[in-house]
Specification:
The chain has 146 residues and is mostly helical. Helix content is 61%, strand content 0%. It has helices at 3-16, 62-119, 128-144. The radius of gyration is 46 Å and the shape is elongated. The N and C termini lie far apart (107 Å). The relative contact order is 0.03. Residues 14-26 have a biased composition (Low complexity). This is No apical meristem-associated C-terminal domain-containing protein. Residues 1-65 are annotated as: Disordered.
């Protein structure tokens, strides 16, 4: 059976159920040049046929449910990994802040020691001790721009 004979059979089936004496609402029989009275309002009826989204709902098979469960499990794991990454990032930020604070405290202590060293007299030193003390004083002065 060819596709054209199938089509004819289908057409003849649908047209046989319609009374041939009544006009059809086929668009081929409508005159577009015909004037329409504004006072007449016809209710437009949507043609019957396929509508988007009104198809049969598919029944989920057990393999689909397993895949859905697997997907949900992977999604949950990915979210856990993302959350762990975020927690690590926050911990790293805290550690960096603590390290910075610790370094600032160490620098302040070193500055106190350097100032204390500069304030001590070195007149009583002789030889290499005097030379080392003078070199250290020079480095401290350069370090703090004194």
């Amino acid at each position: 059976m060819t596709s054209s004979s199938r089509r004819r059979a289908k057409r003849s089936k649908t047209s046989s159920s319609v009374d041939p004496s009544t006009p059809t609402s086929d668009a081929r029989n409508v005159d577009l040049n015909e004037a329409v009275d504004e006072g007449i309002q016809e209710e437009l009826v949507r043609p019957t046929g396929r509508r988007k989204g009104t198809g049969k709902k598919t029944v989920e098979s057990s393999s689909d449910l397993e895949l859905k469960d697997d997907f949900e499990e992977m999604n949950r794991r990915l979210q856990d990994i993302r959350d762990l990454g975020h927690q690590r990032y926050e911990i790293m930020k805290e550690r960096v802040a603590e390290t910075k604070k610790f370094n600032e405290m160490q620098e302040a202590r070193q500055m106190e020691k350097d100032i204390e060293f500069l304030s001590k007299p070195i007149d009583h030193l002789q030889g290499d001790a005097l030379i080392l003390a003078q070199m250290r004083r020079q480095k401290i002065k350069e370090k703090y721009g004194l």
